[in-house]
Amino acid sequence: MSSEDRSGSLGTFKAFAIAEGILLIVLGILALVFPVIASFWTTGVIAVLFLIGGLVGWISNLARSGRMGRWICFWRLVVSTLFIVAGASMISNFRDPAEAAQQVAAFALAIGIVFLVEGVVAFFSGLAHTNRPGAGWAIANGVVTFILGILIVTLKFWGLLWVLGTLVGISFLFSGLELIVFSSSMHDGQDPPAAA
After folding, report:
1. Is 195 among the domain residues?
2. Domain-embedded: residue 194
3. pLDDT 10s digit of each residue in the chain, 196 long?
4. Which of 2, 9, 13, 1 is nearest to 185 (CA)?
5. Domain membership flag for residue 175
6. d(Cα 73, Cα 52) in Å, to the nearest integer?
7. Of 68, 83, 124, 154, which one has the fewest beta carbons inside 10 Å?
């Protein structure tokens, strides 16, 4: 690849990466300004993903059923069916605002419980490997994640409605900033990561 082609390819990469970073920052700010709306959107997207994942799982498992044992295929189909039922149920509940709010709150509560468990696991994993580099970060991550879990689990119903939107907003904001900083640091003579 000539230096001119490489420079053009890098310029295109940087332009798209910066544009994507700006979009993520804007979406992150909107999610932080309107966390309840972002929570409902997040739950709706997850419902659609559950439904699609379940349907794809059914098709995939039936297509590969000859290569799998009967019980493995059966249980995979059960899991795929649960994804379909959960996704369809979540989508149908969005017709009634009260049920949709309960669903968003339940999903946020589930995330809080996951954070509690993940925090404990990360903390004890860090303690078990104190002789390895980064063990302190694992312990700190466990403590912070556990505290976040406690905060989420102890929230009242209306507080739970903004949790998902806030988490998505923070994630988008930091992802956008990281993308802009990373792409801005690239200079001529470097290949874009996709071409490396």
Report:
1. no
2. no
3. 555 555 567 678 788 888 898 998 999 999 999 999 998 988 888 889 889 998 998 998 888 877 777 888 888 888 889 889 888 888 887 778 888 888 888 888 888 898 898 889 888 888 887 887 777 888 888 898 899 889 889 988 888 888 888 988 888 888 888 888 877 776 655 555 544 3
4. 13
5. yes
6. 19
7. 154
